[in-house]
C-alpha cells in the first residue's frame, strides 16, 4: 500500500496533519499526490494501450524485437513514443527481445597433446600444510606470443 493512500484512507478518523507526522511525509506531498491522481490514472490507461500495441508488434516479430525495433515500428505506424517509455512498459509486462551473442571460444584443446598425469589421484585432502600443490597454468604466455603448455612437477 502506498503511504499517501494510507493517509487518504484514514484521514477522516485521524486527520491529515497527524497521519503525515506519524508516517514521516510532508503534508504538501500528500496534497500533491491527491491533486495528480487523475494524471496518474490517465498515464496508466495510456500505458495499458501502449502495452497492447507492444504485445502485437512483439508477437508479429516472433518474440525477437527488443526496445529499439519496437520503438521504430511504433513510430513508423504513427505513434509518438520514446524508447525509454517502451522499455519501461515492456519491463512491466515481462517482454524482452532476443539477444543473439557469439560465443567466444577461449580454449582450443589439442587432441594429440598428452594428458597430465594425476599425481595425487584426485585426493585433495592433506595431512599437513604444504604437502599438496595443485594449479593450472595453461594460459602462461611466453615471449614468442604463444602459451606455455609444459606441466611443472615438484
Automatic annotation (TrEMBL):
InterPro entries: HTH-like_dom (IPR025948), Transposase_IS3/IS150/IS904 (IPR050900). Pfam families: HTH_21 (PF13276). Residues 47-103 form the HTH-like domain. It comes from the Bacteria. This is HTH-like domain-containing protein. It comes from Saccharopolyspora shandongensis.
